[in-house]
Amino acid sequence: MRPDDWHLTGNLDAFLARAGDFLRSRPVLHTLALTVTETLRTRGTAVYGSEPPVLGVLERAGRVRAVLFRTPPHPLRLTALTPDGADALAARLAALGHVLPGVGADRDTAVAFAAAWRRHTGATPVLHERARLYRLGTPTPPEHAPEGRARVAGERDRERLARWYREFGAAVGGGVVQDHGAWADAQVAAGSVTLWETPDGTPVAMAGLTPMVAGQIRVVPVHTPPHLRGRGYAGAAVVGAGRAARAAGAAEVLLFADPDSPTGTALYQRLGYRPVADFVEYAFR
């Protein structure tokens, strides 16, 4: 495989015209690429940062085999690659002078690219984050749900949503849109955030939904303020968000969770989510 089998562009429309069918062919495993590019398409290419996105496809014999995307300052993201494909990409990006803060992909792809990047640039990869992708099977409400109810966030919740989204981004270390207020406005307009509120009407947790693309919706962000955690509020909000996604017609309802968090992984599996694949992110030092 040759480095010039990779075709890079900053033009989102051209990228989607070339890679759209490939991404839709495996919507579960390609959920991140589908939802990020949909956000870029609908909200503008500066939504994640001031620098333009970097997009690319690996083509051989007239067929797309893999894609990459990067929304600076965030890490490079890849769909599944063979070690040869990863090495060809590392050679191409290094030759073009790209400086990468890291890479995220399914575990095997991330390992292969991190090793290739080290060979071509001398950068040292350091494991930064692990995530497990889950898909909703048969929904299973919690046996002991907290008192309260789920409702869709509205205009009166706008400031709370913006604040919670900022807290969520700080907790996960980035990867969220930069303008928290604009994000809250978009969610209110779309009706895409489920709040769990206590019997007195106080919101205590939220679970958002990405736009539906290729029949899949991902539950994100999920957030409970630290002083309210451990009471089942997040799980109740996730159940409500999953119901909303199914009601909207989603064939697949997905979420990412930290596999090193026994509480979170046990919760999601109790709610009917089943593991699909493991993903990792390496930082380059």
Shape: elongated
Question: Percent of residues in helical segments?
Answer: 25-40%
Unreliably modeled segments: none
Helices, by number, come to: 8
Q: Tell me the structural class.
A: alpha+beta
DSSP strand count: 12
Largest sheet: 12 strands, mixed
Q: Strands of the biggest beta sheet: in what spatial order?
A: 1-2-3-4-5-12-6-11-10-9-8-7
> What string gives the helices and strands in order?
EHHEEEHEHEEHHEEEHEHE
| Overall pLDDT score | 95
Distance between the termini: 27 Å
Strand content: 25-35%
Can you tell me about this structure?
A hairpin with a 6-residue loop joins strand 9 (203-209) and strand 10 (216-223). With 285 residues, this protein is an alpha+beta fold. The chain has a 12-stranded mixed β-sheet with strand order 1-2-3-4-5-12-6-11-10-9-8-7, with helices on both faces. It contains 8 helices and 12 strands. The protein has helices at 12-25, 31-43, 83-95, 107-121, 158-172, 180-190, 233-247, 262-270, and strands spanning 6-9, 54-60, 63-70, 76-78, 102-106, 125-136, 149-152, 193-197, 203-209, 216-223, 252-257, 273-284. The mean pLDDT is 95.
